[in-house]
Amino acid sequence: MRGNKFSCTLLGMKITVQQAAEQKQLTPTRIRQLINAGKLSAVKVGMQWMIEAKDVERLVVYNRSGRPRKAKAASTKPAASPCVKSAAA
């Protein structure tokens, strides 16, 4: 039943990585990364990962791309001392 991509979802059981990627609008690679990170549970059947459909529905993915931003540091400029006179004055 390779041609029928809805065979597993109609039964409410398990779906493939490709189906999960289509459902969440992610790439299959990203779904596999989530599985390897332990954020999405899956069972390997032969060469293919099978994921519970309910787990995919509960999956919350934040679309933050790229490197995280650095926190802005407080100004480290020393304040001018009122007691010190500049050379120009």
List the helices and strands and how they pair.
Elements: H1 7-11, E1 14-16, H2 17-24, H3 28-36, E2 42-45, E3 48-52, H4 53-58
Antiparallel strand pairs: 1-3, 2-3
What Rg, in angstroms, do the CA atoms define? 26 Å
- Can you tell me the CATH superfamily of the domain at 7-58? Winged helix-like DNA-binding domain superfamily/Winged helix DNA-binding domain
Please, how many helices? Answer: 4
Low-confidence stretches: 6-10
Extended strand count: 3
N/C terminus separation: 89 Å
Query: What is the CATH architecture assignment of the domain at 7-58?
Result: Orthogonal Bundle
Question: If you had to describe this structure to a student in words, what would you say it looks like?
Answer:
By secondary structure, this protein is an alpha+beta fold. 31% of the residues lie in helices and 13% in strands. Helix 2 packs across helix 3 (28-36). The protein is rod-shaped, with a radius of gyration of 26 Å. Residues 6-10 have low confidence and may be disordered.
Keyword list:
89 residues, single chain, alpha+beta, three-stranded antiparallel sheet, Arc Repressor Mutant, subunit A
Short note summarizing the structure:
By secondary structure, the protein is of the alpha+beta class.
